[in-house]
Amino acid sequence: MAKFVLAGKADCPLYAEAERLADTLQRTLPRFRVHKIPVLPSEWEKWLEITCNKNGWKHEESPIIWRELVEQGGKGMLLGGYNDFVDHCKVYYGVTSKIPEDELERIVAENLETQLSLLAEEQHRLSLIRPCNVWITGALCLTSQILIPFLLSNETFPDAQTVAIHLLHLSGDEEEMQMLKMDIEDLALRLLYRVTVHTDLGQAFHEAHVIILLDDFNDFSVDSDSEEQSDKARKQKVKDVSERYREYGRLIDERANKEVKVMVAGVSFINMRCSLLMENAPSINSHQFIAIATQLVNEVRVVLAKKLCVMPSDIADVIVWGNISGNFIIDLRWAEVFNYPGAVRVPPNFSQPVLGVLFDRKWIEKEFKPLVHQQREALFSNTSRGAAISATNGILEVLQTWHGVSGPDAFFSLGIASSDFYDLPEGIIISAPATCTNGKWSLLEDVNINEKMLEELQLCADELLKEKEMQFEDPE
To answer: What are 78-88's pLDDT values in tens digits?
Structure first.
């Protein structure tokens, strides 16, 4: 069987003549087949270059015609242009054709009109698609790579038609970013609309609906022999973090959707990074900025579970107040434990207050918090990174609640704006029990804290203010 492919500019008269001749042969010869590829004039040169490079051909005009080796496999065999096709048809099939001028003009007009119509239909179809634009900074980190497949699910975005993933890693390796893009596309998940990669701020956060900030500066290391040098290095680190996040905040304010959901995760300066974003994006509601404390809460649950001889999943409703990556307060007043191996065995779905079964108050006051610090430091000292899997789980839990997957009674320990509780300084992000209503996070209602906790919380706020002040200090 002979199968020819005709490609040319939609407004090219020679392409129209070749098309008419091929139609004639296809009607009269039972084993002759033709496939036509009209291309818009504005796209022709690029299309021709790509096609020729792919097949190793040299051709510079419209139309281009080749024969597909249907029965033999392999790439097509280039025939040439219009004159080559006419000569081939005359020699092999004894057929030639001359089209009247008016009919030629009609075919050219039909080709062009059809292609413009198809283009308009495609543009209209694309305009109907409203992808949820998810931006991830620090996209090359391990947490990002674990997180992305879970973002492309209806459990995380129940109302999204499609999800567009935008990967941003400043000064990232371009080849590595492209490989990550290919890896995501190879997932072939139904919800994925497209993947874009960025190594600069040129298009950052454009039309963003969700922003997850993972660039944690954990690759920063200090090799010093004195406390003075270490302090200098810490100040420089704060300065670097602050400059980047102030710029992020300005871009979010200018480019992101006004209902954007902004999440800051990681290990270092989580509260401060979130507060810088909030300060520099004044047109975005402050209740749309949160710092993820779920990972810290889970570390508390692990330590508590070891003490009570249960699984970490058996511990619920632990609250953490304060500075997520600094001085924090563990609040066990609402904490519950399931499957506690006490003197009386209870059903698996029955819980008991943690403070009702944990009588070792000395352990709670003296040893508990240092053990939580050790839990985090043990992983970081061995891997030089945070707990990526745990961090991913925390981000997903909060994001799903933000999109209404969890029940209305669900609450989390989150870094939220402190403007409306306990007379704390405005402009800081502080961890507290929070609930989500209509896409906005706010302090859990009817939460009372005693005078001692209030004093401790004020110390946490003072620490956060000092961190923010360090960005204006000269490291030298």
So the answer is: 999 989 998 98
